[in-house]
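Lab notebook: predicted structure, single chain.

Context: the supervisor wants predicted structures on file for every construct in the current expression panel, including those that have not yet been purified. This is the next one on the list. No modifications to the sequence; it matches the entry in the shared construct table.
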Amino acid sequence: MVKYVHGYVGVLVDLKHIVIILSMFFMMHSMEKILQRYERYTYADKAHPLKEPETQEELHNEYRELKRRFDALQRSRSHLMGENIDTLTLTELQQLELQLETTLKHIRSQMFVYEYGLGSSVA
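Prediction complete. Output recorded below exactly as produced.
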């Protein structure tokens, strides 16, 4: 029986050492993976440098395009609000009317869904 206990303890000690060795191996393996990822991301920045700053002319062209689009949106908004419509042609007025009617239909359908949803949850 004592021999069995000593053998069992010996196996447990050996298992403890194996667990320690394996955990160190996996820890080192994880550490190695972490270092590899760090190196990959660190050197990836150098391998793919950022785009050179745009030239002054490119920036100016982009500014002009954004300004043009902004002005068009401002005009469209003011027309939808009923402002400055005296400068519109008949075709533009018809398009504006159609757009307003479509928007109004959409708003009314949303109101109906909202009201219908409230009616069914209260009842």
